[in-house]
Automatic annotation (TrEMBL):
Membrane-crossing segments per the record: 12-32, 44-67, 138-160
GO cellular component, one term: cytoplasm
A GO molecular-function descriptor: outward rectifier potassium channel activity
InterPro entries to which the protein is assigned, alphabetical: 2pore_dom_K_chnl, EF-hand-dom_pair, EF_Hand_1_Ca_BS, K_chnl_dom
Pfam families: Ion_trans_2
SUPFAM superfamilies: EF-hand, Voltage-gated potassium channels
Protein name in UniProt: Potassium channel domain-containing protein
Keyword Transmembrane helix included in the entry's annotation: yes
Major location category of this protein: membrane
Superkingdom of source: Eukaryota
Keyword hit for Chloroplast: no
GO biological process: stabilization of membrane potential
Membrane topology: Multi-pass membrane protein
Length: 368
């Protein structure tokens, strides 16, 4: 492999040079100051290593750096939200207490308050303007990105005395974007060592920032779709389509179909009425007296029935293990176990003898 010192002379490869070449290669920065010239085996290895670096290494690094970006974003949005003048609660019962929390679908600064039924009381808070939304969502992580480059530029100036701050800052941003022109020479061992860490942090942070941007696009589209669905007038065909049993549209049918129109997904697929029907049948099976509610004794019976399924689930896992289908068996077992824990929690939460409602809880139950 061709490697040059600060005077343009070839010199042996060191561990720091190898680390530097590795980072420059798998990050696709590619300065061009080190390359496998006239070495076919090393060229083949480099191509394979680049593919691994792009698809596995830096993809996972971008995922890891998504966590600190979320922390910065959440912290900054919490700070911004403390200055948001939009009320978080309203008085819906007429008792003079604003104890009903308004649905809010954006952190930080909010949009306007929307009154759906014209009674003068807001029903939910709309999304903010595009300038506010994108500013408060992306600006914190972008500021951190700029600070990383500023600090890195100062360090490069210390490690390369002939390098000016403006050129160093230019080099840092060109590196972070993986363009890597190679017009700024990183020739000393100390500079290459720091450059390896600079590439790792900067490229990973930018990758996580771009990944977060895609998530924010989906979030923005969901905000707009939700508000449009709540504020627009439903046409007669949509309302008639909600009636699944030809008995008129009840509350359940209306809510579920509104969620379907909103584009809610179940297991990464658009929600359909057929996805809801098994849960309705499950409810009807629990509701023995057909009064539309599951009584405590009915819930107790259901928990016992679920417990009875445990031996069958364990046997299913053993059969799937023997057939080499351990993953499917574990998934079924975990699903059943999660269902049991959820039902047990539900029983403890609503059974008066186990968990009586406090006065504070009763005061927050509003009439329907």
């Amino acid at each position: 492999m061709t490697n040059y010192d600060s005077n343009g002379r070839e010199r042996p490869l060191t561990i720091i040079d190898a680390l530097y070449f590795t980072m420059v290669t798998i990050s696709t920065v590619g300065y061009g100051d080190m390359s496998p010239i006239n070495e076919p085996d090393l060229r083949i290895f480099s191509v394979c290593y680049i593919l691994i670096g792009i698809t596995i290494v830096f993809k996972n690094l971008a995922f890891i750096f998504s966590a600190p970006i979320r922390m910065v974003r959440v912290g900054m949005l919490a700070l911004i939200e403390s200055f948001d003048p939009t009320p978080r609660t309203v008085d819906t019962s007429g008792d003079g207490f604003s104890d009903t929390h308004l649905p809010k679908y954006s952190d930080g600064m909010s949009g306007e308050m929307i009154d759906l039924n014209g009674n003068g009381i807001a029903d939910f808070v709309s999304y903010p303007s595009p300038f506010v939304y994108w500013g408060q969502e992306l600006l914190p992580a972008f500021i951190v990105m700029v600070l990383i480059q500023l600090i890195s530029a100062v360090i490069f100036c210390e490690l390369l005395p002939d390098l000016k701050l403006g050129v160093a800052l230019y080099h840092c941003f060109i590196t972070a974007t993986t363009v890597g022109y190679g017009d700024v020479s990183i020739s000393t061992q100390s500079a290459r060592l720091f450059s390896s860490f600079h590439i790792l942090i900067s490229v990973s942070w930018l990758g996580a920032l771009l990944k977060n941007y895609e998530v924010l696009i989906d979030k923005r589209e969901a905000q707009i779709a939700h508000t449009m669905l709540l504020t627009r007038m439903l046409n007669p065909d949509e309302v008639h389509a909600m009636d699944k049993d030809n008995k008129g549209v009840d509350k359940l049918e209306f809510v579920v179909n509104m969620l379907i129109l909103l584009g809610v997904k179940l297991c990464d697929k658009p929600l359909e009425w057929n996805d809801v029907r098994p849960f309705i049948l499950k409810f009807e099976n629990l509701d023995k007296d057909n009064d539309g509610r599951i009584a405590h004794d009915e819930l107790d019976l259901f928990v016992e029935q679920e417990k009875a399924l445990y031996p069958k689930a364990a046997e299913l896992c053993r059969e799937l293990e023997n057939e080499g289908k351990l993953t499917a068996g574990r998934r079924n077992w975990d699903l059943l176990r999660h269902t049991h824990h959820s039902l047990s929690w539900m029983k403890r939460s609503i059974h008066p003898s186990v968990r009586p409602a406090s006065n504070a809880t009763k005061n927050h139950i509003l009439p329907v």
